[in-house]
Design a protein that fits this description.
- By secondary structure, the chain is mainly α.
- It has helices at about 20-25, 30-50, 65-90, 100-105, 115-135, 155-175, and strands spanning about 145, 150.
- Helix 2 (about 30-50) runs parallel beside helix 6 (about 155-175) and helix 3 (about 65-90) packs antiparallel against helix 6 (about 155-175).
- The longest helix has 23 residues, at about 65-90.
- The protein is globular and about 45 Å long.
Length: about 180
């Protein structure tokens, strides 16, 4: 029997910094758990069609490769779920931001096998879902400070999903046409 996942209202604009609105609005009114599950499947399906050679493709010299985009997606999902965990547990310490460009430079994603990265994406998403499913819906409004901005747990859940949607759109539009 399939577990019934709760339907959660999207976060209010007061629950996140304005620059996250682009990601959050991409999720829309859909059930956040279904979006995360469905996108996990569709992203794996899309990525599995990309060859190892093609995974090193950049549509411009100063742009990330497909591998780097995927590595960035994995890093951001980990960071956002870490923030969600800390805020859900009522951690009151402000969390520092991160420089995604520096993370990608330091990661050496080009040295990794693309199939291993796809597997890692899948495992990280499974861990994300396990964490989020353990949260009490009534407590998703808990929030904390990150990079000087208030963020709720619910907003972070939506950022995880919307960030993936955003980058899959870029892959489809700029890398895989």
């Amino acid at each position: 029997m399939k577990k019934k996942l709760p339907n959660i209202e999207p976060p209010k604009a007061s629950e996140y910094a304005a620059f996250y609105a682009n990601y959050i609005t991409k999720v829309g009114q859909e059930n956040i758990f279904e979006v995360l599950l469905d996108s996990q499947k569709s992203t794996k399906r899309l990525l599995s069609k990309i060859s190892e050679k093609k995974s090193n493709y950049r549509y411009a010299d100063d742009k990330w490769s497909i591998k780097e985009v995927l590595g960035h997606m994995i890093d951001v999902e980990r960071i956002m779920t870490y923030r969600a965990l800390r805020f859900y547990r009522n951690d009151k310490q402000e969390l520092a931001g991160f420089d995604d460009e520096e993370y990608v430079k330091a990661a050496n994603f080009g040295d990794r096998k693309f199939t291993d990265m796809i597997k890692e994406f899948d495992i990280v998403r499974q861990a994300t879902l396990a964490l989020f499913e353990g949260f009490n819906v009534e407590k998703l409004g808990r929030a904390g400070m990150s990079s000087g901005y208030l963020m709720s747990v619910k907003a972070l859940m939506y950022v995880v999903a919307g960030h993936e949607i955003h980058h899959i759109g870029i892959l489809n539009d700029r890398y895989l046409t």
